[in-house]
Amino acid sequence: MASSHEEATHPTPATYAKIAVTLGLITAFEVLILYVDALTSFIIPIFIILSTVKFAMVAMFYMHLKFDNKLFTLFFASGVILATFVIFCLMLLFGAIGNGRYGSPEVATEISHTETHSDKAHDSTDKTVTTDSDYDTDASKTNDVVVASTSIIEIGTNGDQLSFDQTKMSAQAGEQVTVSFVNSAGAQQHNWVLVPAGPARLEIATLGMTAATTGWVPDDHRIIAHTNLINPGETGEVSFQVPSEGSYEFVCTFPGHSFTMFGEFEITQ
Amino acid sequence: MANITEHMEHETTTGLDHRKLLIWAFLGSECMFFGSLIATYLVYYGQGLPGTPTPVQVLDIPTTSTSTFVLLMSSFMMVMSYNSISKGNVKNFRIWILCTAILGATFLGFQFYEFKEFATHYGLTPRTNLFGTTFFTTTGFHGAHVTVGVIWLMSLFFYSFKGDLTKDHGLMVDIAALYWHFVDVVWIVIFTMIYLIPVGVSS
């Protein structure tokens, strides 16, 4: 394809060199702004724009798409656009964006995770009225606590889909409730675990991956209440006192399920 | 092999050489391949077992920026080597393509050092946690592509000594160059998504 008429339209070595210098400078600039604290909140769009510029320069000039037949651009652009689309879809599907994970400074707290772990646990347990008895989920024991009312909240699964049939449950603050969990799946085991909202859900679910002997429920004091691991078609119950404040979520901690199997536990005053 | 472009004027429905369409179709599919690897890394981001190494702890930006720069410059060398062969300057072609391959090998050296450092210093292997698995799979597959590229470039370098590589054989170099530049643009994306953004938002 190196026919003479094509060469004429190709850039000169000087152009190639200018692009090389620009690419180098952009990379240096990226590393430089990495350490500018003031830019932290804008850093994601800045990096995406800069890398897109680098990508486009290489594709247009070094890969000479700018001067070649448009069909080549179509082939390549289709792949790039589809790949970008797939990345976005997967991230949305698995809740990796808009949920305090990728691209969120909260991730940074994980560095000192082992140090802050116990502090976090105390914070969340302080908010709850009862702690240890809840964690044991011994229904008879917690039911002995005299409270104004007891209500039963039912929740199930969407068949074999990895999701609960409700995305939101609500209960009165301080109320004694029994959650009745119907596992309507045909093949999957599930549980229902009440945890503080936010990063705790995934952290607890991740810890649960190694807790096979306790029905994938880790020994973590942030857990407010949990059912046992329920076999397909069976029902499990857990009774506990609803915390007086705070925001909570429920989740299935069976390995892999937590990505899609969770919901909001609203506390009404 | 010698006649690789002499008969390129054969009729095709598009009027384009099929080999060149093929490399672009291949590169389009490679976008999907790396897209899914990067997506997997992003989806599992921040879900490593507590107590195991995290991206922000282990990623070494100064070293990786250097290797990124090396790879970017290798792309420049590559385009210069293509420029030389299309002007019939085989001698310059050899110098540029050898430089490209050397820079590519340097990049691989950096990656080997990085992997070794992660494993020995931080105990991070593909088996440690989701970060390790997705990180090594994504960057490892990129490294494998660079390795293939280095072998490809060196083959062209040695082939040129047979005296069969002339101005008319630009397509052979062109196709190798397109692959090499693709490996470069993939790294631009990986460097941003896997290295810069996680460290940037957490610093």
Q: In order across it, which strands form the biggest sheet of chain A?
A: 2-8-7-4-5
Output the radius of gyration of chain A.
Answer: 27 Å
CATH top level label of the largest domain in chain A: Mainly Beta
Give the termini separation of chain B. 53 Å
Structural classification of chain A: alpha/beta
* Broad CATH class of chain B: Mainly Alpha
Q: What name does CATH use for the topology of the largest domain in chain A?
A: Immunoglobulin-like
Number of structural domains of chain A: 2
SSE pattern of chain B, N- to C-terminal: HHHHHH
Quaternary structure annotation: heterodimer
Query: CATH H level of chain B: which superfamily?
Result: Cytochrome c oxidase, subunit III, four-helix bundle
Which stretches of chain A are poorly predicted, pLDDT < 50 over at least 5 residues? 1-8, 106-148
Return the average pLDDT of chain A rounded to an integer: 80
Describe this entry's structure for a reader.
Chain A has 269 residues and is of the alpha/beta class. Chain A folds into 2 domains: 4-93, no CATH class; 130-268, Sandwich (Immunoglobulin-like). Chain A has helices at residues 4-9, 13-34, 43-62, 70-93, 113-127, 132-136, 139-143, 199-208; strands spanning 150-156, 168-172, 176-182, 193-196, 225-226, 235-241, 248-251, 262-268. In chain A, helix 2 packs antiparallel against helix 3. The N and C termini of chain A lie far apart (74 Å). By secondary structure, chain B is an all-alpha fold. Mean pLDDT of chain B is 90; it is low at 1-7. The longest helix of chain B has 33 residues, at 170-202. Chain B has helices at 18-43, 55-58, 61-86, 90-121, 130-159, 170-202. Chain B has a single domain (18-202), classed as Up-down Bundle (Four Helix Bundle (Hemerythrin (Met), subunit A)). Classes of the chains: A alpha/beta (269), B mainly alpha (203).
